[in-house]
Amino acid sequence: MATRSTDPVTLAPQAGDVVVLGGPGTADPAVLGGKAARLADMIAAGLPVPPAFCLTTGLFTRYLADTGLAGKIEGAEGGAVRELILATRIPAPLADEVLAAYERLGRPRVAVRSSALKEDSAARSFAGQHDTVLDVAGDAALLDAVRQCWASLWSARATVYRDGDAAEAMAVVVQEMVHCDVSGVLFTVDPVSARPHRVIVEACQGLGEGLVSGRVSSDLFVVDDRSLEVVEERVRYKVAKWAPLAPGKIGMTKVDAADRSVPCLDHAQLAELAGLGLRVREHYGSEQDVEWGLRDGVFQLFQTRPITTRPLPGDDAARAGTLSPYVVQQPDPVQHGTLWSRMDIGEIFVGLMTPLGLSFARYYQKNVHLDCAAALGVRDTGDADLHMGFYQGHVYLNISYSAHLLGQALPTRDQRHFTKRFVGEEVEGGALADYANPFGKFPGGVEDLLSTAHWLRCTAAEAVQMTSRSKEMVTSRLYEFDRARRLDLSRMSRRELHAELTRNLGYFHDSHVGYMPYYINAFGFYGILTELCRLWLGEEGRNLQNRIKTDMSSLRTVESAKEIWAVAQAAKDRPRVLKTINEEPLENIAAALRADDEGAAFWERHMEPFLRANGTRGHQEMELSHPRWIDDPSYIFQMIRRYASDGFSADDILRRSSGYHDDSREILKKLSLPQRKVIETVISLYALCSELRETTRMSMITSIWLVRNVVYEVGRRLVEAGVLHSLDEVAHLGFEDVRAYLAGDADETAAFPRERIDGARRLHEYRKRLPEPPLTFIGEHDITQAVRPAPGGARLSGLGASPGRVIGRARIVEDLVWQADEFEAGEILVTRYTDASWTPLFAIAGGVVTDVGSMLSHSSIVSREFHVPSVVNTKYATQRISTGDMVMVDGDTGVVEVVEG
């Protein structure tokens, strides 16, 4: 806001400087700002809006004049203006007007919200650019909140969003605070696909801030705007919510167990809410984005704005509506004949990925994957674009093209040996028996001889160097980890940060290339073992490969669970330390321990060595947006609580993972001596490759953590510059944009345009609503036609991944960090999928059931190592089973049955 005044000037109070919304008086956005004008209009139209008053732009002008700030802010930097306002008290005459209005409102707890002139306009929404202060009570707190909202007009993010436009006057809304039972957003048209007659409702437990920030799970409903009938719903297991923690303090807390699996809204409530949304649309004559809440069965509307975003050219059309994972259109036989799979692709790609994660996977595809193939002895590594594909936010391996190229290697000359390892039940049987690879067989003749000779040389070299390379990778990992802990990235220039990213990407390349032979060789020996059991033992050998004790209890992934157990026992020996871990909020535990002498000693002696060995683990590791244990040790503290409270000794987990009685050897005695020796040799090789795979896997995931560190340092700088609202938005960046920014001279605004970030967010939100795509399919797949689970199903079939039969109480686990302390020893773990970060729960689980998985997925391998019955790839277990159900898990037949609801 510009003014020529240089000296304080006291303005006389003006009528209408404080306006009760919906009452007599103006509803001019130039006076009330965009948000308040909309609320006043909604109240006047009879829509249910909590009572509120507005401090007008005129009152703001008086504040600047009365305090002398008007002259000081002209030409000043935005950050300096913001600090001036935060430091300057509201003069008594103005404060009295504000507090008198607060008195007339009844002095309730209030939400104080900014209302800038162009906020919620058709041109720009300014959503999230200016401040909101929730659950405010008392005179002093209210006046402080008002100044915070005024000051946010000059925040870095608001300045960037205005894109050069001058700051204008700011009004402020003071509205009665509603502590909602359920909150959410309603779109009167699908904001991504723009499909007609679809009212989209997203609903979460507690306050809507959790939904807007993306930190809580929400239900999705689609209501037909003609009949008000619910035509689609996706109910998720909801663990956490935003809610009052104490007067004036809003934060994350757990959802009551009884509310976790049930829909946030019933169909009658959805029809009522959709009807309100249609009234808002009709009133304004345009599609609307409405924020709402439900308290004691009554709906309230908190805000509405025009939907200013539309699907961008090539946005949802390019990736949301496609039926094929191919990035580039292929000839028809290839487009419709390719076999795609996301089974067993290193665990790190499992599940829906954010735009950042997908773009990083694309970097891997273009810069690393071909060299990984070369490390396997493949002479012609082919076209990088054909190796992998992307479908609805999931990464797929092109099995057809991979099988074609692996035809150069002797063990996979027959493509079926490779293909069948990546095929799920979706394309088993006749579809696979009649399948013809559209890429054909790899050329014979001279090309075949050259490729075979190359493979033999590489294989011989691998046999010689595999053990020594493993040791080198372990040494280098610890060096890189220690070096990264010593670095202060925040002190680096952009050029230095670019050099650091380049260095880390080099290590990322080398660790993945070094790891790949261990992974594939373990995979191959498992396949050979399976085939030999089938050929030589027939039905008696069915699933025998999963019952043979391979003495792999020292696998690095399993060892991490033992080490958490040891840390938990050390905490139990120190009552003050354990009290801190049990009683402090998760986010405060680390600081509280370090601030205490005994806690600091515990941290140095036990936590630091554990984090050095395991700290770079995390959920879905190729997904850069997910913190690792060393970034956020909350999950470790949850497991310490769990392990320390169960009364087990440190040896219990060791006995469970190594004391298994293996009677399958009796079956092997029926074989001839040569056959038995062959199988024992294959078992030994499988065990060796598996151990090396697990040992070197830590190098691979550490390399990803190193890259993540640099990306999030860029993210922190973008938040400071106002380009990002918060670090949560790093998930919507493109990895190549980060690289280009560090390598170039473009400023933050040019390198990361807001339109691109918002487009990526919209597309990711759209994908989150969709059903889970299949593990494998041929050609194209229409996800909108996905089969839904039949209601009331009490029996599920999947893959029996770890033998044994167990009955126990089920516990659905959606959020590992928030639920680890709830999991009771002996319960049946039911979840969508697992990765290495879940291993500590397996140590106390009675059984494991997953929606997604295969015989060599993490959940299968670790279940077998802990000898826990497991069934994977049930597809709908998390939807059909409820926490507390008595469940039978049969790991031999692959059946899961609810025996008592």
Q: What do you see in this structure?
A:
With 901 residues, this protein is α+β, with helices and mostly antiparallel strands. It contains 34 helices and 25 strands. The strands form five sheets. Strands 18-25-24-20-21-22-23-19 form an eight-stranded mixed β-sheet, with helices on one face. A six-stranded antiparallel β-sheet has the order 9-8-7-6-12-13. α32 (839-842) links the parallel β21 (828-831) and β22 (847-850). It is globular, with a radius of gyration of 30 Å. The termini are far apart. Residues 31-310 form the Pyruvate phosphate dikinase AMP/ATP-binding domain.
Summarize the structure.
The protein is α+β, with helices and mostly antiparallel strands and 901 residues long. Helix content is 46%, strand content 15%.
Quick tags:
901 residues; alpha+beta; 8-stranded mixed sheet; 6-stranded antiparallel sheet; 25 strands; 46% helix; globular
Q: Give the overall shape.
A: globular
Low-confidence stretches: 1-14, 120-128, 161-166, 310-321, 549-554, 657-661
Order of the strands making up the biggest sheet: 18-25-24-20-21-22-23-19
Please report the distance between the alpha carbons of the first and last residues: 64 Å
Mean pLDDT equals: 84
Structural class: alpha+beta
Determine the strand fraction and express it as a percent band. Answer: 5-15%
Estimate the helix proportion, in percent: 40-55%
Q: Can you count the beta strands? A: 25
Radius of gyration: 30 Å
InterPro entries: ATP_grasp_subdomain_1, PEP-util_enz_mobile_dom, PEP_Utilizing_Enz, Phosphohistidine_dom_sf, PPDK_AMP/ATP-bd
Protein name: PEP/pyruvate-binding domain-containing protein
Organism: Streptomyces roseoverticillatus
Pfam families: PEP-utilizers, PPDK_N
